[in-house]
């Protein structure tokens, strides 16, 4: 049996290029409160609060570079905050938890459908059909995100 001192450390990974500022602020507060390492991964420089629990990892520019960095480093039990459905699928394959900024948990039961819809929308955009962007992040989305984050933090205790 592994002692708590030798137990693997769980982390929060953030696909930070497209993560809304308000969600990052919720994560910063949670990192300090729960004393959990939170790593923001982006292909640009990011400002993070002065905290021993929060850090930024800057990766090279290019498609999916931040996603690849997260997918390579994530471990079972970690939490990944992302809007990117292919990254969420990769995270689930590694037995980690994937949560989008609107508070929706990606699961093994829903990820195939989400990938299918995403690919269909990409095809429509590829032939010039305007599909619109994501809806505005509302207070109820922030509340749903914070509630899911709190559940995940409580489960890891």
Walk me through the structure.
The protein has helices spanning 21-34, 65-73, 85-93, 111-126, 139-156; strands at 12-15, 38-42, 54-58, 79-81, 97-99, 105-106. It is α/β, with parallel strands linked by helices and 157 residues long. The chain has a 6-stranded mixed sheet, with helices on both faces. The chain contains 5 helices and 6 strands; from the N terminus they run E-H-E-E-H-E-H-E-E-H-H. Residues 1-7 have low confidence and may be disordered. Helix 1 packs parallel to helix 5 and helix 3 packs antiparallel against helix 4 (111-126). The two termini are 17 Å apart.
Sequence-ordered SSE layout with sheet pairings:
Blueprint (H helix, E strand, L loop, with lengths): L11 E4 L5 H14 L3 E5 L11 E5 L6 H9 L5 E3 L3 H9 L3 E3 L5 E2 L4 H16 L12 H18 L1
Parallel strand pairs: 1-2, 1-4, 2-3, 4-5
Antiparallel strand pairs: 5-6
Helix pairs in contact: 1-5, 3-4
């Amino acid at each position: 049996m592994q002692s708590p001192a030798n137990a693997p450390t769980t982390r929060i990974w953030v696909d930070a290029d497209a993560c809304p500022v308000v969600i990052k602020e919720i994560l910063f507060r949670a990192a300090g409160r729960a004393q959990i390492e939170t790593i923001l991964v982006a292909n640009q420089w990011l400002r993070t609060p002065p905290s021993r629990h929060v850090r930024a990892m800057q990766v090279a520019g290019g498609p999916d570079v931040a996603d690849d960095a997260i997918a390579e480093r994530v471990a079972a039990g970690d939490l990944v905050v992302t809007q990117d459905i292919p990254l969420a699928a990769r995270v689930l394959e590694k037995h980690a938890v994937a949560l989008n900024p609107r508070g929706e948990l990606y699961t093994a039961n829903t990820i195939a459908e989400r990938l299918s819809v995403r690919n269909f929308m990409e095809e429509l955009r590829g032939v010039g059909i305007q599909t619109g962007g994501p809806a505005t992040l509302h207070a109820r989305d922030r509340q749903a995100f914070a509630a899911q984050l709190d559940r995940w933090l409580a489960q890891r205790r």
